[in-house]
Amino acid sequence: MLAKANISYEDIKFNMSFDISIDLVSGTKYTGTLTLDLPVENIIQKGKASLEKTDFSDVIFKRN
What backbone torsions phi and psi does residue 46 show, to the nearest 5 degrees? Predict the structure, then answer.
């Protein structure tokens, strides 16, 4: 549908940031900000895209 509407990847790409909170049973809380560049794949040709983030080495968690 995007290809038929003549929409390019450059038209729909964006950057998204959100906070992740981890609350431990001990009561300690950690918060880190995750930033993503989306979409992650060529959604124009494939029609859908997905991302599974397993490496959080770029996220700095701070104790609250």
Answer: -80, -30
Please give the pLDDT value at position 9: 84
* Cα→Cα distances 9→5, 12, 38, Å: 12, 5, 10
pLDDT for residue 36: 94
**pTM score > 0.90 for this model?**
no
Helices (H) and strands (E) in the chain, counts: 2, 3
**Separation between Cα atoms, residue 64 and residue 27, nearest integer Å:** 10
What residues of the chain score a pLDDT lower than 50? none
Alpha carbon distance 16, 8 (integer Å): 19
Residue ranges per structural domain of the chain: 1-47
